[in-house]
Amino acid sequence: MFQLLGFVVRRYTWNKVQGFRQYRLKNLTVCLVHSSITGCWALSMLLLYPDIMFYHTMHWYQSFAIHLPMISIGYFCYDLTDMLRHEISRWTVELGLHHVASIFVFTSAVLAQKFLPYAHWALLMEINSIFLHLRSIMQLSGEYQTKPKKFMFTKIVNIITFVLCRFAVQVWLIQWCWHHRHLMHSFFVAIGFVVGCFFFVINTILFYRVLASDGLLGEWAKKQTLQIGRDAIQENNDLIGTDSTVSTAEPMSVVKN
């Protein structure tokens, strides 16, 4: 599915853009499609089946529900290989660890046929990823200059959904795991706590980068974030004719989830 989507995006979108920026825009477009599908699906599950999401988080199973984590497994596998083809950097390692952890968690739920509502809870974070990816696309495409009000709205909604759909959801997942630890095998308890804390740290770092890039932590933090940003360094590499597949830069605005 995502290989086909990636082919269509590479062939028909962002062809007037050059260099590393073109790769990033094409990659972010695929990310946006994934976030839109999975985020809306997970939110629909919460709104339509709140009793299942809150009170049957462990043992509830329906064949239709298993497709959501399977879609995300396919996306993370696609995105990991796409990054390895285009960019070898410290950020490939960072995002690679995130993707591998996500694949491991969702695969554990799919194979065990348990914790599917838990996986849906986790994918509520993709609601924020919609605005996170939109924000990055507007920055890279220059649309933030031509549509400043739309960009400001996207930044505000991004921060609000970050707190609600990432931090609040992550806290709920960790506390649920704590209160139900005596009902679970130690393997799943370890996943809940270790991987949960791992994602919480990643989200905290990402939130700092977003706030700094948006100028909410002062001009110094904003300049540092932009000057050593992943996209800024790669654009500079393109301009001076160096290998644009190697970077030691910090992501300017996005860590994909």
UniProtKB/TrEMBL annotation:
| GO CC, alphabetical | plasma membrane
| Family annotation (Pfam families) | TRAM_LAG1_CLN8
Q: Where in the cell is it found?
A: Membrane
Q: Which domain of life is it from?
A: Eukaryota
The alphabetized UniProt keywords are: Membrane, Transmembrane, Transmembrane helix
A biological process (GO) annotation for this entry? plasma membrane organization
Give the residue spans that cross the bilayer: 28-48, 60-81, 93-112, 156-175, 187-208
Q: What membrane topology was assigned to this protein in its record?
A: Multi-pass membrane protein
Where does the TLC domain lie?
20-211
Please name the SMART domains in this protein's record.
Answer: TLC
Q: What is this protein called?
A: TLC domain-containing protein
Biological source species: Steinernema carpocapsae (Entomopathogenic nematode)
According to the entry, what is the taxonomic lineage of the organism? Answer: Eukaryota, Metazoa, Ecdysozoa, Nematoda, Chromadorea
